[in-house]
Amino acid sequence: MKFRTEYKAEPSGLHLDPTRPIVLVGSCFADNIAGKMRECLWNAYNGLGTLYNPMSIAKVLEMMVFGDNDSVDIESSLFETNGIVHSWLFDSHFSATSRDECIKNIIESRTKLLASLEKSQMLIVTFGTAWCYSLQNMNKEEEYIVANCHKMPSSMFSRRRVSVEEISTLWIDLCKRLHQKYPHLSIVFTVSPVRHLKDGFEGNTLSKCTLQLAVEQIRTKIVNALYFPAYELLCDDLRDYRFYSTDLVHPSDSAIEYIWEIFCQTYLDENGMTMIKEGNKKFKKLNHRPIMRLGI
Q1: Residue 185: which domain range?
Q2: pLDDT band at residue 13 using 50, 70 and 90 as cut-offs
């Protein structure tokens, strides 16, 4: 007797080598997978911080990969509040007490990103939401979408859901440029299963559908673009509140572990599976803390 419909993992033609780095960008779900990789001593780089919407993720990747350390975009994205300098293009991970320090943090991250992309087989891009916030009264010809509002007043922003066409057009062009620079790189898109309930139930559903349709359009135009069903695994396979954390929004540890197992079954061959199991054993050994027993 079956109580749920289970997803059957199908091995991909792409077999990842755990000795080569993986680059992950996007929403906080990317942090979950990166964490599981590092527990296997797999070099997973996700140092661009949490980026939720596809427009901001594309903007940051374009600037970091094809820009330079003197990029005007970095300088113009900075603002100061309460003695802390933030960037509209990044989360608070890059914030600092001075403009120079904030720029330094971004440049250091760029250096690490480029080094990882040179060796990586895969770039994992996780879209979190299609809802975007734009700065008002920026006196710019183009809309200025921010990656993070940094708890600034809501009156500073306008909010809208970007379209399937906007997302796909932007990303198809970016994927082509990435493939030209890194022909060895496959790009795997995922839609985060994390629920954005501040958008409302209907708003969250429309957002996730927009992201899925956009990814489908990208995949029809880009040969090396793949899709991993993280969203479907939690929402259609597991689909139970016991697989969510206590906030009923983020996936639980067991759900993350399940999705990680499906990822491994999809992109690792037998040798790769052996390597990450050995890596996990070493990780646990390195992090083992012996219990101190007091003599009586």
Answers
A1: 22-259
A2: confident
Q: What is the pLDDT of residue 287?
A: 80
Helix (H) or strand (E) holding 215: helix 200-221
Does residue 11 lie within any of the structural domains? no
Q: Using CA atoms, how far apart are residues 125 and 86, in angstroms rounded to an integer?
A: 23
Q: pLDDT, tens digit, for every residue of 87-116?
A: 999 999 999 999 999 999 999 999 999 999
- The CATH number of residue 191's host domain is 3.40.50
pTM for the full model? 0.92
| Residue 142: exposure state from Cβ atoms within 10 A (0-12, 13-18, ≥19) | exposed
Mean pLDDT of 134-139: 78
Q: Is there a domain that residue 278 lies in?
A: no
**Confidence at 296, pLDDT banded by 50, 70, 90:** very low
The secondary structure of 186-212 as a DSSP string is: EEEEEE-----GGGHHHHHHHHHHHHH
Tell me, yes or no, whether 83 lies in a domain. yes
User: Is there a domain that residue 134 lies in?
Assistant: yes
Structure tokens at 233: 């695994």
What mean pLDDT comes out for the span 194-204? 90
Residues 6+ apart with CB under 8 A from 123: 23, 24, 25, 117, 178, 185, 186, 187, 188
With 0-12 / 13-18 / 19 or more C-beta atoms within 10 angstroms meaning exposed / middle / buried, residue 232 is: middle
Contact 104, 170 (CB under 8 A): no
* 159 HSE (CA, 13 A, CB side): 13
- Structural domain total, the chain: 1
